[in-house]
């Protein structure tokens, strides 16, 4: 097992995050997913997060990320969901026709620790999302 470290600790903190589009609207295509990923990668260094894997289906994204003990995941999620929602709706105005009000993401999300399965299994699962 590969462990990360900082000045005072050794750790391995991996999370599987699933973010869902409001009302499960099917608005994510490859172009939108790539832009959402770019926004994630832009924001992640400010929160000590490293993207491990990214993929999408038409109404949600799967993210495998590595964090540090001082990572405030809830603050990161609020920042990411707010920024990505604003930018995606601005850059892809067609999305507004599929959604009501100003919401892009659902308020809820799924965040799982990855200790129950090997990382390679989770990576493979995320890689195959959206495929039949």
Automatic annotation (TrEMBL):
According to the UniProt entry, the coiled-coil residues are: none
Q: Which GO terms describe its biological process?
A: DNA transposition
Task: Tell me where in this chain the Transposase IS200-like domain is found.
Answer: 10-129
Top-rank taxon, per record: Bacteria
Q: Name one GO molecular function term.
A: transposase activity
UniProt xrefs under NCBIfam families: transpos_IS200 (NF033573)
> What is the recorded name of this protein?
IS200/IS605 family transposase
Q: Which organism is it from?
A: Paenibacillus cremeus
């Amino acid at each position: 097992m590969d462990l990360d470290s900082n000045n005072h600790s050794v750790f391995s903190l991996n999370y599987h995050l699933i973010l869902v589009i409001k009302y499960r609207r099917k608005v994510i295509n490859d172009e939108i997913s790539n832009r959402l990923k770019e926004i994630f990668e832009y924001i992640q260094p400010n929160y000590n997060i490293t993207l491990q894997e990214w993929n999408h289906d038409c109404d949600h994204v799967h993210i495998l990320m590595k964090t540090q003990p001082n990572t405030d995941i809830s603050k990161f999620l609020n920042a990411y969901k707010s920024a990505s929602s604003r930018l995606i709706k601005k850059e892809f105005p067609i999305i507004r026709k599929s959604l009501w009000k100003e919401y892009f993401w659902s308020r809820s999300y799924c965040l799982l620790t990855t200790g129950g399965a090997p990382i390679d299994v989770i990576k493979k699962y995320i890689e195959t999302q959206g495929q039949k």
